[in-house]
Amino acid sequence: MKFATMRTRLLLALSASIAVGMMASANAAEDAAPAAGATAEEAAPAPAKPALNARKLFATNCSWCHQDYGMKAADGPKLAGTSLTEAEVIDRITRGKTPMPGFRKIMTADQIEALAKYIKGLKDPGN
Ligand code: HEC
Questions:
Q1: Which of 14, 28, 57, 107 could cysteine-pair with 103, CB 3.0–4.6 Å?
Q2: Pick the residue with more confidence: 53 or 9?
Q3: What pLDDT is recorded for position 52?
């Protein structure tokens, strides 16, 4: 009797772990599969380097001082229509200028460059 109980427990434990394993691999397969209904065009290989989302970067790091995505002054000046060149903007973001912090320790050069391009691309609304 004792042996039979142990065997049952062992079997239960075994099938439980198999079930967990199966769920895990099912999830992995789901992640890897292209979204249902994706056309061949949509499924085309992604560019080697995904484009940086400068607007999102800006929203998280800069918008609390440069409002409206840089379109309006707040604690920092409006950035749309800045007289600085792209290189100067890169320098400003990299090193900061009191009270603006420098971002070289928390951003990559690519991220800073993407932000500079984003800022230089803003159209001054003239406000
Ligand atoms: C703590 C507030 C603060 C944060 C956060 C901040 N800035 Fe600034 N920023 C300022 C202030 C203040 C100035 C004006 C400094 C000066 O020239 O005296 C400034 C100036 C600038 C300038 C120069 C504009 C010009 O025309 O002279 C740029 C470009 C700039 N910031 C970009 C950014 C970017 C990009 C981020 C986010 C990565 C950012 N800032 C985050 C406060 C901030």
A1: 107
A2: 53
A3: 81
Question: How many Å apart are CA 33 and CA 64, to the nearest integer?
Answer: 39
54-120 CATH, one of 3.30.559.30, 3.30.930.10, 1.10.760.10, 1.10.540.10: 1.10.760.10
pLDDT digits (tens, 9 = 90+) for 66-105: 999 999 999 999 999 999 999 999 999 999 999 999 999 9
Report the pLDDT value the prediction gives residue 114, as an integer from 0 to 100.
Answer: 96
Q: Tokens 């890897």 belong to which residue?
A: 32
Quote the CA–CA distance of 111 and 117 in Å, as a whole number: 10
**Residues framing ligand 1 (Cβ under 6 A):** 61-62, 64-66, 75-77, 79, 82-84, 89, 92-93, 97, 99-100, 103, 115, 119
Neighbours of 2 (CB within 10 A): 6
Q: pTM of the prediction?
A: 0.70
Q: How far is the CA of 85 from the centre of ligand 1 (A)?
A: 14
Q: Whose CA is nearest to atom 26 of ligand 1?
A: 82
